[in-house]
Amino acid sequence: MEHIGAALKKFLEQSGLKAGIKKQHVLDAWPEIVGPQFAKKSRPKNISGGTLWVEAAGSSWAAQITMVRREIINKYKKRFGRLPFQEIKTTVGYFPPE
To answer: Based on the number of CB atoms within 10 Å of its own CB, is 68 exposed (0-12), middle (13-18) or buried (19 or more)?
Structure first.
C-alpha cells in the first residue's frame, strides 16, 4: 500500500498542480526576496512563458527593478532552486497613494 504522502506527491506531479503551487510560492515570496522598499512599490503579477511579470508604481521603479533583476533572480534561486522563470519584466501599474 502506498503511503498517503507519496500518493499525494504523485498526484500533484501528474496533474500539473505541483508547478502551479510552486509558481504561487514564488509570487508570494516577492516581499521577502526584494525587501520592504521594493515590495511597497511593486508586485508580481504572474509567471508566463518563462518570465516573471512585475507591476511597478512608476517608470522609475520599473527601471530600478530591471537594473537589479539578476540579483532578484539569484535570491529566488537560493531560496527555491529551480525556478519557473528565467527573466523578469516590468510593467507600470496603479498604486494608491500611501
So the answer is: middle
Higher pLDDT, 22 or 46: 46
Strands (E), 9-96: 42-48, 51-56, 87-92
Nearest to 34 by CA among 60, 4, 54, 5: 54
- Domain spans of the chain? 18-92
Whole-prediction pTM value?
A: 0.80
DSSP state for residue 28 in the 8-state scheme: H
Nearest CA to 67 among 38, 47, 31? 38
Q: Which CATH class is domain 18-92?
A: alpha beta
Min mean pLDDT across 10-14, 51-55, 60-64, 75-79 is at 10-14
Quickly tell me which residue has 496533474 as its cell: 15
Distance CA 14, CA 81 (A): 21
CA distances from 62 to 10, 30, 53 (A): 39, 15, 11
